[in-house]
Amino acid sequence: MQKIDNCCNSKKRISALDFLMNQKYTGRNIEGYNTDLIKTPKGIVKLYWKKEGGKIDIRYSSPTCFTTRIALEAICEWICNGEVKNYREAIEKLYEIKGYKVTEDVKNLVYEVFMRIRE
After folding, report:
1. How far apart are CA 99 and CA 112, in angstroms?
2. How far is CA 63 from CA 9, 39, 101, in A?
């Protein structure tokens, strides 16, 4: 259930299904990116990021766990768009996704992502 953003006529993702069905930040064209692995209870997540000026461009590869993919897709979008700057802001926004439950595993994953890109 995407919502049209009047500002730039793009579709704003607001539900868990929106993030799951339209994955834009999976690890493609990652040459020149920093790489790190995050071990989660659901499998290993590969994180790719690079800093350009004051912005961070971030991508991921992850196991097929829907909860993990939705969280990664959302926080990658928000980080790339400058909508979140830290762990707390990301967690607050995850709670706003319709049809998505934020678990302790998700909180730990988000924490690990921010620890990696801070370096």
Report:
1. 23
2. 32, 11, 18
Cβ neighbours of residue 31 under 8 Å, at least 6 residues apart?
A: none
Which residue positions in the chain have pLDDT lower than 50? 1-9
Cα–Cα distances in Å, from 15 out to 3, 36, 80? 10, 28, 19
pLDDT by residue (tens digit) across 27-58?
Answer: 878 899 999 999 999 999 999 999 988 899 99
| Residue (of 26, 42, 51) closest to 112 by Cα position | 42
Give which of 100, 99, 4 is closest to 91, Cα–Cα.
100
Read off the tokens for 76. Answer: 């990658």
Amino acid at position 50, single letter = K
CA–CA separation, 8 vs 50, rounded Å? Answer: 26
Sheet holding 43-52, edge to edge: 34-40, 43-52, 55-61
